[in-house]
Structures are given as structure tokens and as C-alpha cells.
Design goal:
By secondary structure, this protein is of the alpha/beta class. The chain folds into two domains: 185 residues, Flavodoxin domain (Rossmann fold, 3-Layer(aba) Sandwich), CATH 3.40.50.360; 32 residues. The chain has eight helices and six strands; from the N terminus they run βαβααβαβαβααβα. A six-stranded parallel β-sheet has the order 2-1-3-4-5-6, with helices on both faces. α1 crosses α7.
């Protein structure tokens, strides 16, 4: 039974996140393959201030799936810290570590999935640092829409194919080089930005602000 660690790295608190949904979907999908799965929330792990148990799970994994949102064109700060802490743990371990396969699942609020590429490269570099084999990244554009359309056939089919590709790569042990998977939702760009702005205005009202307050320049 292959040991797979699923790492969810959304900084959100008390609300649903796209990364959380994707990692749960991966967990459910890989269950049909009989995998031994461990789910790690980076935010919760950091709050415990004792990551050794989680780091031990990572070091014994045969595959790592890391799901996170794009923050300022790269990884969220809490994930960067977590990976740096794990790297130090890895260097201090006396026993030889496994060499897991690594997959990055990144979603961004931009319409263009390709903007996620630099974040995927960071995960590739991290993989190299721990002697792991980076296989490929999944780059999702218009990430803010995923939860709203997750049950629509066009979205469900795309995500099913993503996790099927990851599962097959893990369990078949293919040595072929894999290209990153790009998921671009078929939705008009102008309408996407229009709906996004409406959402910001709605959040502002809930917090006692007016539309013009969003354009203030206090500094």
C-alpha cells in the first residue's frame, strides 16, 4: 500500500477554500486505489508548534500532493515557511529518506493559468532539495470560480482527469517526463472580472465600507 501525503496550504480561516476542496477531492479519489493517505493542513500544523509528527509522515511518503493558492505570484508565506522548516528537518535526519514523487496543484485568481508557473517551479526546486522527484504541476486559472462550479459537468470532468493522471503516475511508476496540466475555465474574461468586483463590493458592505472606500490611498 503506497503512502501518500496530501498537503493543504490555504491560509483561509473559517471558510471554504479552493485548495481545501481540491485536496479533499484528491483524498477521495486516491482512496479508490487503496492508498494509505495522510492529510496535513499547513496552517494547523504550524499552530501546533511541533511539526515532527507531520514531518515524519512526509519523510516516509512515497508521493506528496501539495495544493495551495497563488499569493503574489508565488507560494503563500506559511507554505514557504513550512517547506523551509521541513528542509531543515530533512537535513538533520540520520536515516535515509524516501525519494517521493511530488505534485503541485496551484490555483490563482487570475484568468490565465500560466501565471502559476513560477510557483510550480518553486515546488520543483524544493523537491530537488529533498531528493524527491517532481513529476508535474496542475495550474488552475479563475480559481475563485472553482467552488461555485465544482458540480458542473465541465468542471467535474476536468478535475477527475487531473486526479486520475496523478493517481496513474503514482501507481504505475512511470519514468516518462510529464508536462504540467493546465485548467482554464471556459468563462468570458470580462464577466469574470465583473463578478469578482461585485464580490469585493459585497464584502465591503458587510464590513461597513462603501464602494469608494476600496479606492482610498491611505499611504
Amino acid at each position: 500500500m503506497k503512502k501518500i501525503v496530501l498537503i493543504e496550504a490555504s491560509p483561509k480561516i473559517g471558510e471554504g477554500s479552493t485548495s481545501g476542496y481540491l485536496i479533499k477531492l484528491a483524498e477521495k479519489y486516491l482512496g479508490s486505489y487503496g492508498a494509505d493517505k495522510t492529510l496535513i493542513s499547513v496552517r494547523q500544523s504550524l499552530r501546533k508548534k511541533n511539526n515532527d509528527e507531520d514531518f515524519e509522515s512526509i519523510s516516509n511518503a512515497e508521493a506528496l500532493i501539495i495544493a495551495f493558492p497563488l499569493y503574489i505570484y508565488c507560494l503563500p508565506g506559511l507554505l514557504m515557511r513550512y517547506l523551509q522548516d521541513y528542509l531543515q528537518y530533512y537535513k538533520k535526519k540520520e536515516t535515509a529518506s524516501r525519494h517521493p514523487r511530488v505534485y503541485a496543484v496551484v490555483n490563482c485568481g487570475f484568468p490565465e493559468p500560466g501565471i502559476n508557473l513560477e510557483a510550480v517551479r518553486v515546488i520543483r526546486s524544493f523537491s530537488r532539495s529533498i531528493g524527491a522527484e517532481f513529476r508535474f504541476g496542475v495550474m488552475i486559472g479563475k480559481g475563485g470560480m472553482v467552488l461555485n462550479v465544482k458540480d458542473a459537468p465541465f468542471m467535474k470532468n476536468k478535475l477527475d482527469k487531473v486526479f486520475e493522471s496523478i493517481a496513474e503516475d503514482i501507481f504505475r511508476g512511470s519514468k516518462e517526463e510529464k508536462q504540467n496540466i493546465i485548467i482554464d475555465l471556459s468563462f468570458p474574461r470580462w464577466l469574470y472580472f465583473f463578478m469578482g468586483n461585485r464580490n469585493w463590493f459585497s464584502l465591503a458592505r458587510k464590513n461597513g465600507l462603501r464602494k469608494k472606500d476600496l479606492y482610498r490611498q491611505p499611504y
